[in-house]
Sequence to fold (138 residues):
Amino acid sequence: MGMLKEFKEFAVKGNVVDLAVAVIIGGAFGKIVASFVKDIVMPPIGMLLGGVEFTDLAIVLKENSIGPAGEELGPVLLTYGIFIQNVVDFIIVAFVIFMAVKGINSMKKKEEAAPAPPAAPPKSEVLLEEIRDLLKKG
Fold:
C-alpha cells in the first residue's frame, strides 16, 4: 500500500504535471512550426532555388536491384535534403524560442524595476503621530 501512495504523490506533484503540459504543448507547437517551415518559409526558398525542394535532394548510392526472392528493390538513397530540412526546422524553432524567452525576460525585468510601494509605518507610530497632531491643535 505504501508504494501506491508514493506513486500517487509523485504523479500529482506540480513538476510532473507541469512537465506533462509542456510536452503536450511542445508537440502542438512543433506541428505549428513544421507547418510554418513547410508551407510558408520553404516555398519562396524553393522558388529562389529554381523549384528545388530540400526534401527531394538525394544521392543515389545504388540503383534499383532485384532481391533474393525476385522482388524489385528500390534504390538506396542518401537523402541529405531531409537532413537540411530538419536543420532549417531546428534553426527556426530555436529562434522562435529565443525570441519568446527574450520577451519573457524583458517583462520580468520591467516588473523588477517597478519600485515596491513603501511599507506602511507601524500602528504605534501612526498613533503617536495622531497624538502629536492633536497636541499641536490644542
Notes: The mean pLDDT is 83. The helical segments are 2-11, 14-48, 80-113, 123-137. The beta strands are 59-62, 65-66, 72-73, 76-78.
